[in-house]
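Possible regression after last week's pipeline update?

I re-ran a chain I had predicted before the update to compare outputs. Posting the input and the new output here so someone can diff against the archived version. Not blocking, just want to make sure nothing changed silently.
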Amino acid sequence: MEIKIMRNVLDRNQDKASENRQLLEQNQVVMFNFISSPGAGKTSFLELLCENLAREFNIGIIEGDAYTYRDAQRLVKYNLPVVQINTEGGCHLDSNSISRALAEFDLNKLDVVLIENVGNLICPTAFDLGENYCIALISITEGDDKPAKYPMLFRKADIIILNKIDLIEYTNFEINRFKADLHKLAVNVPFFEISCTQQTGIQDLIN
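New output (post-update):
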């Protein structure tokens, strides 16, 4: 019974995700879904995207968090439309919540929607939101074993970002082992090493 219920949930989510994707296509909007652990640097990276791209593209932001509006408050300064979704303890966003958030935007005036998903490496990977691209953002301080422990995320990702590269010398993170585990998963997507605080590698990624 539990398996059947979960399948029904995912089927309904997929149906709404397809509707979201069709809506975005009709309005010529591209949507990115950023997935990471708490504290990996999603909001810091979104700040850099806003600083560098807001003059060229019309950007809307969907902020997902279990509680608080703190991440959204960090992005208000860019004078971009921001919609906050609080899951009240839920570990991921779903396509229905994204559908309601998209309804808050004037999509005719947007080029890009950036989603900051709830900090979690497992649950968000199972729920298609209707995004065009899934971005996996990992940080040095989490350890080099994440591809081995959370393969679903890395198989789903269209881009993989390794943040906080400036801290690698202070940790036991082995980047060759990290890359070898990606290779074992047959992951062949763009991979970037960056530091949001030092802005290392940011321009290549933005380009």
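Follow-up from reviewer: compared with the archived run. The helical segments are 2-26, 42-53, 70-75, 95-102, 146-149, 151-156, 175-184, 202-206. Marking as no regression found.
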